[in-house]
Write a structure and sequence with these properties.
single chain; mainly beta; two-stranded antiparallel ribbon; 1 helix
């Protein structure tokens, strides 16, 4: 009789364990339930993965916003033009035609007209690449702009003329 009870008890306990395992594996909640990712983002394991150009918990913030504005800029161009030294001027960065493009005015030459703007493309949420462009001064400008912290950017850019680099500068930019 003891043997039958032991077998029955073992059977009941085994069924209980299997039932618990099956119930808990079937009742696991999807970590992405209720999460809405905006601007083309997708949920993965409970967190939004944002496309380039957007950031935030739900991809709700345009990454470009931290670059847009008027910046007091200080250039340092020590290797190419030591006579120039450092130059203080303003650079304006405006929204462009897409979430990953911006327009940069006055970078490297504050005397140029507003129609002479550079196009910067976002390469990460914290970095822009300035596409090479020849402006009305017949010089070609290119470089990068990086987000450092709220209201602060750094830039490195090159100015070339007839294919030769005439300036290689680093800049600090503050709103």
């Amino acid at each position: 009789m003891k043997k039958v009870r032991t077998i029955l008890l073992t059977g009941v306990l085994t069924m209980g364990v299997f039932s618990t395992v099956i119930y808990s594996s079937c009742s696991k909640k999807d970590k992405c339930d209720g999460i809405v990712c905006k601007n083309g983002g997708s949920c993965d394991d409970g967190a939004c993965k944002c496309p380039l150009g957007y950031e935030g918990a739900n991809c709700e913030t345009a990454s470009a916003n931290k670059f847009i504005g008027l910046f007091a800029t200080k250039d340092n161009c020590p290797l190419v033009d030591s006579s120039r030294g450092s130059l203080n001027y303003s650079v304006t960065i405006n929204a462009g035609p897409s979430a990953t493009q911006l327009y940069v005015l006055n970078m490297g030459n504050p005397g140029l007209p507003p129609s002479d703007y550079l196009t910067a493309t976002m390469t990460s949420k914290d970095e822009l690449t300035i596409q090479p462009k020849t402006l009305s001064d017949n010089r070609t400008y290119s470089g990068t702009i990086k987000y450092v912290s709220a209201g602060k950017l750094t830039a490195s850019f090159q100015v070339s003329e007839n294919g030769n680099t005439i300036e290689a500068c680093s800049s600090t930019m503050t709103k």
